[in-house]
Amino acid sequence: MTTRLLRKTLALLFLGLFGVMKATTISCRNEEGEAVDWFTFYKLPKRQDKKSRETGLEYLYLDSTSRGWRRSQQLVNTTKSVLGRTLQQLYEAYASENNNTAYLIYNDGVPKSVTHGRKYGHTKGLLLWNRVQGFWLIHSIPQFPPIPEEGYDYPPTGRRNGQTGICITFKYNQYEAIDAQLLVCNPNVYSCSIPVTFHQDLVHIPQLCARSSSAKMPARHLATLQSTQGQNFLHFAKSDSFLDDIFAAWIAQRLKTHLLTETWQRKGQELPSNCSLPYHVYNIKAIKISRHSYFSSYQDHAKWCTSQKGTKNRWTCIGDLNRSPSQAFRSGGFICTQNQHIYQAFQRLVLYYENCN
Questions:
Q1: Can you give the residue range of the structural domain that contains 344?
Q2: Contacts of 340 (CB under 8 A, 6+ apart)
Q3: Where in the sequence is the signal peptide annotated (predicted)?
Q4: Which residues are known catalytic residues?
């Protein structure tokens, strides 16, 4: 082999390896743009008092490389925020028109729409992946994110109340299970691209993208998922035929733990704490950010729960359903983990909760 031919062969090999390495980089990202296994965020509500400097764009952040909440260095509406950094991969994939990358964006509150799609699940999220890996972002923010061609932005409707979300990086072999969970959640998909290369492995996602799914949904379905670095998660998905509170009737009893729940407490539309079953569900009434800073659940659009202190099983779940009578008729889900750093972070937010009557 001549020196010239050898150099050409090595160059092609390098480009091939670079392409493989680049293909594996779809991942949740931190504020520095570095790949992380998972992250969770808590967007803080806009404070109404004149003395407060909080704009409704600040957030708390925790990822797989840290041990507890830290205040964001960026505002959530900037491209350097944790959401902006993560979604940048979506815009790059969209601009490149790469047939090896797929995405699915869903929200019952579509951007720039004044109505909510009650035909679909009360569920909000985004998936971006290739045949190596990708991420699933589950959140509570209405009208978010914009369609890919418009680039990153954060909606004004997401400022007033608190919001939560979790991003998890998954290998491609997990997407078949995610595919089945999304069918049950019945998401309102408003932007998507599922190249043909994925259609053989993923049955329901291409149909959800085309709004042509005719598959029969089970009333509920539980899936075990594993992140790229081996963190285990349970995903609870309920359809609109499971006519009950997902927390009391299913999650608490399945996880065998008393739960403290934080969901949007719209006055006159909340469910009371429930102690009628072996494992109880209590409504959190106030969130503590620091020693002198807290806010009421009425200012919070977040959806999460954590095991009561002192219980054996320490779980934390993040999702997109509220504890209200109307939500029993909506589909949606929660993803749960026993990660101790996530548990401790959310447990420290609980200022007080409502006991059963």
A1: 26-354
A2: 314
A3: 1-23
A4: 301
The two three-digit tokens of residue 48, written as one number: 């109404």
> How do beta strands 124-129 and 189-193 pair?
unpaired
Helix-then-strand count for the chain, H and E:
7, 19
Q: ∠ at Cα 162 (161, 165), nearest 5°? A: 135
Asked, for residue 18, whether it belongs to a domain, the answer is: no
- The C-alpha atoms of residue 328 and residue 330 are separated, in whole angstroms, by 6
Domain count, the chain: 1
Residue 207 lies in a domain: yes
Residue 27: strand, helix, or coil: coil
Question: Which three-class secondary structure state does DSSP give residue 70?
Answer: strand
The Cα–Cα gap between 163 and 142 comes to: 9
3-state secondary structure of 257: coil
**54, pLDDT greater than 90:** no
HSE at residue 126, side-chain half, CA atoms within 13 A, is 27
d(CA 164, CA 192): 23
pLDDT reported for residue 311: 83
**pLDDT for res 231:** 98
Residue 16 lies in a domain: no
